[in-house]
Specification:
The chain has about 425 residues and is mostly helical. It is about 75% helix and about 0% strand. It has 19 helices and 2 strands. The chain has a two-stranded antiparallel sheet. Helix 4 packs parallel to helix 10. The two termini are about 40 Å apart.
């Protein structure tokens, strides 16, 4: 069933893309359109920051605690920019992705441990994404969840097949779905009439009220800074535009960092808009118990009308489909990088959708499953972050593009904060359980 790893077309750099990149690096092509040859990896990675897990945690956070957890969303997004930028840099400079470097430089037992935890994280990721798309399709068209499972599986598989034609087709589809999500939440904000002063306060004043809000806060971090996105981004940049000198590596990194800032700023605004919508509509003393996607949809209809509820579901469906595609891609990268296997695409899609199918058949609370999956991801997150900081700080690997002192300090502090949040949550869960 497993086959020897082979490069896939997304890693290949076409002659046209190479010529366009050369023109930018040489200064012959300037202006906003100069970003185009380098545009794509961060857009694909950004989908991980707008998946159905974000819908679940942001709806619960906004409905239960108003605007007070917005600072967590902002913090998580800034951290995401840092680590996605480092992941992209690792691929550009070394020509290897994070999972491959782990296999090459870590002891075998540690590699197996990393692989198992990363596979669990990939399955938790796909659980959230597949469930979200299925719920969205079910509520949007009124079809049974079983039918939604089949439709979601077929659509994601069809999009994944586009990678055989190179990186552009799949990037265009993913970019279009991201655009649908962004437009949907722009419309939702216009309809919700939020309290802008409270939004500003929530973004800059840290607040954790207790174990319930801490659980949601860690879920938000887990839903925003995603382990599979860290692995995937280095893969997407490692062979896209092959650098032939340190000067070219630095130039490609500059454009890559610009793309990261643009793509993840958009993702951050969408996440903030999710929580703001939930806070402004549901945190009213009457609907604060709205903690599920289904209930949010049912409650939105009488409060803001069918149009708002429909826009909400369209954005959820776009999120689920796009992020499920990206999650399957990341699963392949993780397995291929750590153990050198590459499952047939249909088999990888089948394996990663099984947890979602089991959850649906068992009749579990879908939104609660989504939130728990995000907490699982948050516990898995420190592993790729630690590995990323180790490799990007090694001069033997990175040369003159090794992390600067401030970058190393910021990355280390962010990793420590994430680990500390997880330990506090674990202690809370043990005490309450």
């Amino acid at each position: 069933m497993a086959e020897v790893a082979e490069p896939v077309s997304l890693r290949g750099s076409s002659a046209q893309a190479r010529r366009a990149a050369d023109a930018v690096i040489a200064g012959r092509r300037r202006g906003p359109l100069a970003l185009l040859p380098f545009l794509g990896p961060a857009v694909i990675a950004s989908v991980a920051y707008m998946d159905p897990g974000n819908f679940a945690t942001n709806i619960q956070g906004g409905a239960s605690f108003g605007y007070r957890l917005l600072w967590v969303v902002l913090f998580a997004n800034v951290v995401a920019m840092l680590f996605q930028g480092l992941s992209a840099k690792l691929g550009i400079v070394t020509g290897r992705n994070l999972a491959e470097l782990c296999r090459e430089h870590f002891p075998h037992s540690l590699v197996i441990f990393y692989w198992i935890i990363s596979e669990v994280a990939a399955m938790a990721t796909d659980l959230a994404e597949f469930l979200g798309a299925t719920i969205g399709f079910n509520l949007l068209f009124g079809v049974p969840l079983g039918v939604g499972v089949v439709v979601t599986a077929v659509l994601t598989y069809a999009i994944l097949l586009l990678e055989r034609r190179g990186f552009r087709p799949i990037e265009i589809v993913i970019g279009a779905l991201v655009g649908v999500m962004a437009l949907s939440y722009l419309i939702e904000l216009a309809m919700a009439h939020p309290a802008w002063g409270e939004i500003g306060q929530g973004l800059v004043v840290p607040w954790i009220g207790g174990s319930d809000s801490l659980f949601v806060a860690v879920g938000i971090v887990g839903a925003t800074v995603m382990p599979h996105a860290i692995y995937l981004h280095s893969y997407l940049t490692q062979g896209r535009v092959l650098a032939r000198s340190p000067h070219e590596k630095r130039a490609i990194m500059t454009w890559s960092n610009r793309e990261v800032v643009i793509a993840l700023t958009l993702a951050g605004l969408v996440n903030i808009a999710m929580m703001v919508m939930a806070a402004s509509v549901f945190h009213d003393g009457v609907h604060e118990e709205v903690a599920s996607i289904e209930t949010a949809y049912a409650t939105l209809t009488p409060l803001l009308g069918r149009a708002a509820a429909g826009v909400f579901l369209i954005s959820l469906f776009a999120s689920g489909i796009s992020s499920s595609v990206v999650g399957t891609m990341a699963g392949q990268v993780i397995m291929q990088g750590f153990v050198g296997w590459r499952l047939p695409l249909w088999l990888r899609r089948l394996v990663t959708m099984l947890p979602a199918v089991i959850a649906i058949i068992a009749g579990l609370d879908a939104t609660r499953v989504l939130i728990v999956s995000q907490v699982v991801l948050s516990f898995a997150l420190p592993l790729p972050l630690v590995a990323l900081m180790i490799f990007t700080s090694r001069r033997s690997l990175m040369g003159e593009l090794v992390n600067r002192r401030m970058t190393q300090i910021a990355g280390t502090l962010a990793t420590v904060v994430i680990v500390a949040l997880n330990l506090v949550l674990l202690a809370e869960m043990l005490v309450s359980g």
